[in-house]
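Bench notes, bay 3.
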Amino acid sequence: MRRFYLFTLIVAAAVLLSSAIAASAQTGQLRGHVVIKQTDGTSVPGAGAQIDVFRTDLPGEYPTKADKKGQFVYAGLPYVGKYVLAASAPNAAPSAQSNVKVGQDIDYEIVLGPGDGRRYTKEEAKAAVKPGAGSATSSTGGGESAADKAKREEIAKKNAEIEAKNKKIEESNKVVTDAFKAGNVALNAKNYDEAIKQYDIGLAADPEQAALLTNKSAALKARGVDKYNAGIKNKDAAATEAAKADFKAAAEAGNAAADLLKKEPAATDPTEQKQQEANKYAAFSVRAEAMRLFVTKTDPTQADAGAAAFQDYITVETDPAKKSRAQLDLAQMLLDAGSGDKAYAEYQKILAANPDDVDANLGAGLALFSTGDKGKYQDAANYLQHFVDKAPDTHKFKNDAKDILAELKSTENVTPQKTTTTRPKKRP
């Protein structure tokens, strides 16, 4: 019997289609708290303190107020920016801090000493944190007591410690920023080798940048598609194996990005929630396609992991057409991986909503047929016949479906039954 030969004609894809991938900029959260040192030596939260974030690499100022606990949160600041964080409050000296990094879940602390309550301008804040500019905390000057001097020096020491702690963050941020920009330029130009190289430079500086991991996954996936197509066309086994390695690496990077984003605390601010959703959408969509290629071209034993990746993507996809396409891709991935029963279950979900979906009818029939279980051949024939009845003559698999039906009839004495829109019972 030619069952497996005919089946292979339909499910084996010789050439993959690649699509241009747009690199997406992402944003994150910046948070911290203000502490005010009183003249009596006690410390209190900087309730209502004025907070100013100044962007120094591009124009940008982001003012807000601390809450009653002295805490503040910014949502939606670009990851790839350089910032100075300044705080001021009544009867306190203003203070500024550089080396501020967005999206790293760092609780920045700003300590204010006694002062006149003035507020830094952008230029004053930048000057206050420049090397050699003295303390980042302003002084009122004139008649400073020994106690006040000691308090001021304590504050200056703490700020210096914070400055030193974040120095590596500033250096890392510059590397990440430059690598992210250069990688995106290369990715959009389809220079995948250079894009991957740049993303790796950024990840060496900060391995937990989900945006870099997502775009690296996209670049690896696209490069793998090119290699795979060339390998099939030129019958080049080495190119095909190189493509499989890229698909594996793309899946690993995509999974790492998804894991990082899943660990982020759920946002409460509406603006931050929207950005968090956008970041997950970008990562989950790239990851699903990377896993599809990895499962179908490299390691079919990872079918369950691929299905989980698709479910994550389908959950965040709001476009009905894209969601339907993803559901079909998930089922086809399982079918290509040899998981006929699991593929059939996914096709059943599609047919429950649209019994006449031609691709789902074809897939359901092939899934049952692929199991080799003769007890399922009748249902397989019914689905395939429904596909033949509904599919246009131009459908590339229509003649193949007819061949399978003919084979079932001649070798297994199985002919399609007349059906209504009620589908056969789902088999366990």
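Next record in the batch:
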Amino acid sequence: IDMLAGPSELTVVDDGTAPAAWVAADLLSQAEHVHGSVVLVTVDPARVEEVSREVARQVEGQVHRDVMVESLSRRSAAVVVPDLEAAADAVNAIAPEHLELLVADPLALLPRIRHAGSIFLGPWTPESMGDYLAGPSNVIPTGGVARYASPVNVETFVKRSAVVMYSPQAFAEQGPEVVRLALGEGLPAHAAAASVRLENPQGTQNP
């Protein structure tokens, strides 16, 4: 609705405080989607191997194992960063559809996140809660669109109008700029709509 939404994406920011089994399970939950993509952003290099082992263990016996393996082999990444500030920078560059902040203090990190569709805070808020129960919109920008778009919500369907009103004093101050810009764009009639008021503010008729 009103955007290209999909395939599914999940980025997990990890500081080592959540169990590796939980991190792996969350990554697999989105790899379960056809063409899903998953990214682990961690401040601990050892976690890449730890979570990878858990992913390899948990993927065995999964109903959608083939889909998961394809997603993991072609559309997954692990990013090691020096600190959580750099992790936020990585997230903002990715602009993921879904973001989990599996860190000790997710509320402290949240203000640094500018570009993400839906954000899930803390170890007790896996993305699947948002899919089925928590309540936010599940029509979420993907493919980096979260840099400039939001999840579909009630406001998406609210029609608005822009309302503008100048006083004579404000128009006298800013009208000349409109004339200059319009002439610069090669639209003299646009300029005339302003200049006719500037030249004859009383609106008197020509003899």
